[in-house]
Amino acid sequence: MKIAPSILSADFTNLQADVAKVQQAGARYLHIDIMDGHFVDNLSFGPIVVSALREHFDLVFDCHLMVDEPEKYLVTLANAGADIIGVHIEATAHIHRVLGKIKDLGKKAEVVINPGTPVSVLSEVLPLVDQVLVMTVDPGFGGQKFLESTLTKVSELAKIRKEKGLNFDIEVDGGINEQTAPKALNAGADVLVAGSYIFDAKDPKQRIQTLKSYERD
Ligand code: DX5
Ligand code: ZN
């Protein structure tokens, strides 16, 4: 199981110190939310911040693109130091082309689905991806409530993976805390994204340790 702290909830005036804290606490992934104000109703940051962080950290940079026309940003993001690039299936009509470009750039390709999107739309791309991100809130903001109905989709993906002998990781993102993390893990999640639960806490290290202590039943 991997923990991916989301810097959307970090203190941007002390970003390096905040990321160092979660690295010291044992996180190996860093979740980086890139928003364009079109695909979601919020703006965050882009490849400039990814490359600034890359100067200081060798964590796995798990980049979640919440943008329209994601194909426009792939080269810049890859050059900035992304390791995993996640693209919403709702954001492109040409998912094979986009995932193929990510692989051609030597990066891990991830497909992302919103809470309202069924797993069935992924049938053609599951053999091509390294990771599937199941959004457990509607994307755009940190600190939202986990949608329990998304757990069925995590289990469904884990079942398909087993039946078809595929080997993508399943990631969940949104509303992860000590109540929801065990549920997501039991449903089959491999990577837990957590933003406000980690960075809004007095002691982010302790929060990471708590998440790391959960194992599947
Ligand atoms: C939401 C982002 C998430 C966000 C999660 O659109 O994709 O990564 O940072 O925040 P929490 O963990 O606070 O729900
Ligand atoms: Zn995210």
SSE diagram, text form:
Elements: E1 2-5, H1 15-24, E2 29-35, H2 47-54, E3 60-66, H3 74-80, E4 84-88, H4 95-104, E5 108-113, E6 131-135, H5 151-164, E7 169-173, H6 180-187, E8 191-194, H7 196-199, H8 204-213
Helix pairs in contact: 2-3, 5-6
The chain binds D-xylitol-5-phosphate and zinc ion (ZN).
Residues 6, 31, 33, 64, 173, 193 line the site of zinc ion.
Class, according to the CATH hierarchy?
Answer: Alpha Beta
Strand content is 15-25%
Principal-axis shape equals globular
The beta-strand count equals 8
Biggest sheet descriptor: 8 strands, parallel
The Rg value, from CA coordinates, equals 16 Å
Listing every helix as H and every strand as E from the N terminus to the C terminus, the arrangement reads EHEHEHEHEEHEHEHH
Counting helices, strands and paired strands, the structural category is alpha/beta
Return residue spans where pLDDT drops below 50 for at least 5 consecutive residues. none
CATH topology label:
TIM Barrel
Summed up, the domain count is 1
> What are the distinct ligands in this entry?
D-xylitol-5-phosphate, zinc ion
- The total count of helices amounts to 8
Question: Would you tell me the overall average pLDDT?
Answer: 97
* Spatial strand order of the main sheet: 1-8-7-6-5-4-3-2
The CATH homologous superfamily is named Aldolase class I
- Under the CATH scheme, the architecture is Alpha-Beta Barrel
Helix content: 25-40%
